Automatic annotation (TrEMBL), chain A:
Name of the protein in question: Peptide ABC transporter permease
Keyword presence, Glycoprotein: no
Domain ABC transmembrane type-1: 94-284
Transmembrane intervals: 25-46, 98-122, 134-154, 263-284
Family: Belongs to the binding-protein-dependent transport system permease family.
Pfam assignment, any one: OppC_N
Origin species: Sneathiella chinensis
PANTHER family (UniProt xref): ABC TRANSPORTER PERMEASE PROTEIN, OLIGOPEPTIDE TRANSPORT SYSTEM PERMEASE PROTEIN APPC
Signal sequence, renumbered to the chain: none
Keyword set includes Transmembrane: yes
From TrEMBL, chain B:
Residues of the signal peptide: none
Name of this chain's protein: ABC transporter ATP-binding protein
NCBIfam families assigned: oligo_HPY
UniProt cross-references to InterPro entries, sorted A to Z: AAA+_ATPase, ABC_transp_ATP-bind, ABC_transporter-like_ATP-bd, ABC_transporter-like_CS, Oligopep_ABC_C, P-loop_NTPase
Length: 297, 336
């Protein structure tokens, strides 16, 4: 009891922030991640060039090395074969990649989380139905399902998001079901039943908050997974359309020149992808630790 | 302590049973169709138990782990539906009630749990743990909630200034008090205590037991006290019911049970209570294991471990019969 925190009058957000800041690497990850988001959002205003406005591109600047001075601007990260500034291209690509990753993860998390919770709480046929569909879906490789769906639905950012949701919801459903099955048998759920609290309230107010820590971890890993899956689809040429380039599409554009020594065309978008994924994972890991009150000192 | 004569039972259980069935899986069903003797596994956790608890009484349900006492408690508290039999609250069959009436009765019968760690939602603050149900059921309003909670917490020996804390910031004894406060916050008049002190230190056990006694006097409560420990229930119960493998084997007022235990199982249990005046005695555990509830013995469930078992005990199920006023026992030996 001596160590108990008397938190009356203390802003819970401040406690949360100071707990989060305990791990320096996580803070670094957060800073990088926020910077990446800012770069993505403000891309049209901060990039030296709009890489998809043909008026601003000089074809003669194609495949220039990083740091070369072109006809109008300095290309710090070089240019691709069309003469587009790679730095600008990466910022724009990040925009699409992050948006697709975040949107698909969020939708899949809500959908899969709710289905998994219901499966665990109600059990029986509901459980069997939901989980067998999840099993069926997980028995196919994610990339195969995404490929089939995208080729069936056609190209477009929304189609990619739909197929990513279809690929991912089962992970959340399965994760939350596992936790919820354990939590549901705990005595606090029985106590809530005994207190005649409604099913809806028990599921969302008692069960759900206790099932979220693993979901957050899976969620962050899945944001990264979704981003790389989208990059894969785009790399294969069936993801986002070339008018809305993502990091994967940029990597694809440079891939042909990898062996001819023009490494930068693929390398820098790839590096951006790596940094994005690592920073998301760092933040996710720390979030998991902080959001668990049992780990609090 | 008891005034059974003047009062009708608050709670009455009539031949209540609970079976847990593990259904056959697909392969099992096929094997069965092909003539294999695979059958569904059925556990008869509670097997035709009848008992009543009068107003203001403390009835203790005692038995080894696995004898079905917790299952019985959960059915009484409305957490689990019974397979068959009736639970009557003040003469009304709980199963026949619907809507508002059902909710009212559900709130009147509350439960206090064994594990003070698992029984409190770790993500809710104390004010939400205790205050959620009264607010949902409109026993108080948002404006009056603080006073309402202060009152309940003080009654249970908790400092109301702890309202904003989380359960992990409390000790085991305090957590058990939180569990009690949560149950009392919906103004029940019947409380099922499922091994409510088993997980606590002995010194804390005494505090919590004293709290139960004090609350009974203050709030006119009736208890069904479930325990595996006769020593714990001796001081607080008016009547003790002994269960063995899902069936009641003996039921008697506390003093009578301790003075003149009738059933061989009760006698064996009583011998094993550690006492100061018997500190040099050798304890001889009851021989054998409690049989698997999946495959309970024929006849009297206790016969494989009973030193006095006869052929009749191996075949015929003994019925509960009165051996003295208020004292029932299910043993063939009583019929000589």
């Amino acid at each position: 009891m001596a160590a108990a925190v008397q938190d009356d009058g203390i802003n819970p957000w401040r406690t949360f922030a100071s707990d989060f800041a305990e791990k320096k690497l996580a803070v670094l990850g957060l800073i990088v991640f926020v910077a990446l988001i800012a770069a993505a959002i403000f891309a049209p205003w901060i990039t030296p060039q709009n890489p998809y406005d043909l008026n601003q591109i000089d074809f003669l600047d194609g495949r220039l090395e990083p740091g070369s001075v072109g006809s109008q601007i300095t290309y710090w990260l070089g240019t691709d074969d069309q003469g587009r500034d790679l730095l600008s291209g990466i910022f724009y690509g990040l925009r699409t990649s992050l948006a697709v990753g975040a949107a698909s993860t969020l939708i899949a998390l809500v959908l899969g989380g709710a289905l998994g919770l219901f499966a665990a709480y109600f059990g029986g046929r509901v459980d069997t139905l939901i989980m067998r569909i999840a099993d069926l879906q997980l028995s196919f490789p994610a990339i195969l399902i995404a490929l089939i769906l995208v080729s069936a639905l056609g190209q477009g950012v929304d189609k990619v998001i739909i197929s990513l949701v279809a690929v991912q919801w089962a992970y959340y459903a399965r994760t939350i079901r596992g936790t919820a099955l354990v939590e549901r048998r705990k005595e606090y759920v029985e106590a809530a039943t005994c207190l005649a609290i409604s099913h809806r309230r028990i599921v969302f107010k008692h069960l759900m908050p206790n099932c979220t820590p693993p979901l957050i971890v899976v969620g962050t890993v899945q944001v990264a997974h979704a981003i790389s899956l989208e990059a894969t689809l785009s790399f294969l040429g069936i993801g986002v359309p070339i008018t809305e380039p993502s990091l994967g599409l940029l990597i694809k554009n440079g891939f042909d020149y990898m062996l001819s020594g023009d490494y930068w065309v693929s390398f820098y978008p790839g590096l951006a992808l790596l940094i994005t994924i690592v920073s998301i994972n760092l933040v996710g890991d720390q979030l998991r630790d902080v959001l668990n009150p049992r780990l609090k000192k | 302590m008891s005034n059974q004569e003047q009062n009708s039972p608050v709670l009455e259980i009539r031949s209540l049973s609970k079976k847990f069935v593990k259904p056959l899986d697909f392969a099992g069903k096929i094997a069965q169709k092909l003539g294999s003797n695979i059958r569904e596994e059925v556990v008869h956790a509670v097997d035709g138990v009848s008992l009543h608890v009068n107003k203001g009484e403390v009835v203790s349900l005692v038995g080894e782990s696995g004898c079905g006492k917790s299952t019985l408690g959960r059915m009484v508290a409305g957490i689990m539906p019974p397979t068959s039999g009736e639970i009557l609250y003040k003469g009304q069959n709980i199963a026949s009630l619907t809507g508002e009436d059902a909710r009212e009765v559900a709130l009147k019968v509350q439960m206090i749990f064994q594990d003070p760690f698992a029984s409190l939602n770790p993500r809710l603050r104390v004010r939400d743990i205790i205050g959620e149900a009264p607010l949902v059921h409109k026993l108080t309003t948002a404006a009056e909630q603080d006073d309402y909670l202060d009152d309940v917490m003080l009654r249970c020996g908790l400092d109301p200034s702890y309202k904003r804390r989380y359960p992990h910031q409390f000790s085991g004894g305090q957590r058990q008090r939180l569990g009690i406060a949560r149950a009392l916050a919906v103004q029940p008049d019947f409380i099922v205590c499922d091994e409510a002190v088993a997980a606590l230190d002995v010194s804390i056990q005494a505090q919590i037991l004293n709290l139960f006694i004090k609350l009974r006097e203050d709030l006119d409560l009736t208890y069904l006290f479930i325990s595996h420990d006769l020593g714990v229930v001796e001081h607080i119960s008016d009547r003790i019911v002994i269960m063995y493998l899902g069936r009641v084997v003996e039921s008697a007022p506390t003093e009578e049970l301790f003075a003149k235990p009738n059933h061989p199982y009760t006698q064996a249990l009583l011998r094993e209570i550690p006492r100061l005046d018997a500190r040099h005695a050798d304890f001889t555990p009851i021989e054998g294991e409690i049989p698997s509830p999946l495959d309970p013995p024929q006849g009297c469930h206790f016969h494989p471990r009973c030193p006095f078992a006869t052929d009749r005990c191996r075949q015929e199920v003994p019925q509960l019969k009165s051996v003295a006023p208020g004292h029932m026992s299910a043993c063939h030996l009583n019929e000589g």
